[in-house]
Amino acid sequence: MKEMIYQTVCPGCNIGCGLYIRESEEGALVVDFMKSSSANLGKLCRFGMKLPHYYSKATNVVDGKEADIKTAVKAASDKLKGAKNVAMLAVGATTNEEHLAFTKIADALGTVVNTGIGAYEEIPSECHPSISQGIPLDDIEKAGRIALFIDPYVQYPLLVRRLLAAKKNGATIVSVGCRDLNLADENLSINPADYKTELGLDSNSIIIADVHPHTDPEQVKNLLNLSLMTGAKIIFMKPFVDSTGVHLFGKGVGQKGLQEIMDGINDGSIKTLVTLNSDLLELMPNTDEAAKTLEKLDNLVVITSRDSPVNKLANIVIATESLYAKAGSFMNVEGQVLNNSGESTVGIDAMSILSKNLGGEAFDFHAIHDKMMKSVVQKFTAPKYSKLECKVMETAAPAENGGNLISVYNPFMWCDQPDDNDFVIVNMKMVDKLGLQKGSMIALTSDAGSVNVRYTVRDIPDGLILTMKKLPVVTGNSTVVKAEAV
Ligand code: SF4
Fold this sequence. Notes:
Rossmann fold; alpha/beta; Barwin-like endoglucanases; 486 residues; 21% strand; binds iron/sulfur cluster; Dimethylsulfoxide Reductase, domain 2
């Protein structure tokens, strides 16, 4: 039986774990380990192991009917020609080359590509490169002290082995968050005003945090300040495989956040939306609400390699090849350029025709790749830490919406993928208070609806419920819910 083997990178987060995908003649996919990948040495987390679920194939669609790609590109050209109030979104869930091709379409339309992480807009541009590209991952293993503002087990699992190696080398780890982490020497729940005095950081320390489409910019500023005041290095993890590449490409342009885009659609200032491998139904906390917003658009043009929920709402879907089969590259959090072995250029070629039809530049993969290498890679690549250029900033207290159900964003949640760990976390006090019996479930009710969920018990602050799965009751980073035993 004939089989294709692709060397590629896991799209679950921007650690950039390398792996092989074996594709049979019938299209069945198997994940295989790539021991030579320096980011993960062949290891993968649960999301990486379940990638065949993620790689569902998209279909070209024009106004609800299946079409071929030529027809879909032509229909998109007709819809976009002369379109006003256009917004474009690409969060970084595809190759550098496709992202650059997408910016050519934006040029032709006289607009920019937004990357969906609104926190960038609030932070001085001289800090952006340090937010985009972090430290070499190997440096984590050499740190004296590490302050964690993420839950690595759930959010960025392949960091765990770096942290354990750091501990073996003598590092101490302090975690600031909702859940006590086994690998931390200290678990603290403290306010930003106390970070400097309580965390014991110095120039031999590393701060590990993250920034994503729903991050509070005030918290990013607090952490940059902490780095500036203590001399500790800082690394911001991100949820998409090319998050680093797209932000370095953007150079401060197109930092509109997802919520800002949704607000623009709701107030009528955005009438046409063009997306590249970015499904707002998956990315926004509440899918139903997001669907109601997207239905207000005059035109929704989706360019994607996946069969994801937004395709059903789109006027036009331009279906590209699966991510693992694309010719192209990604840039991971430490600034390493990671190449796919795939040679397919279906997506780039479709975007070239679209760009040309809109009066812009035509291009091919090689031209785009060369440009990408010159403009970004040669400037930023090779893992190295760029010292923070910004000054200590004024900050306000992080916005609180006072909810008791907290979303812990992770690869399964960003892509709304099925996961066996589909339970919420509560503490023993809540089990007693609700009268939960072994095997019973919790009914959660919010303004958005209700759902019954399984639970597990951990040591977390009183009154909180943590979810690692996208629940239909969720309305934001935290949601007010009523909990009852069922
Ligand atoms: S989700 Fe992140 S940590 Fe897990 S395999 Fe993919 S890149 Fe690695």
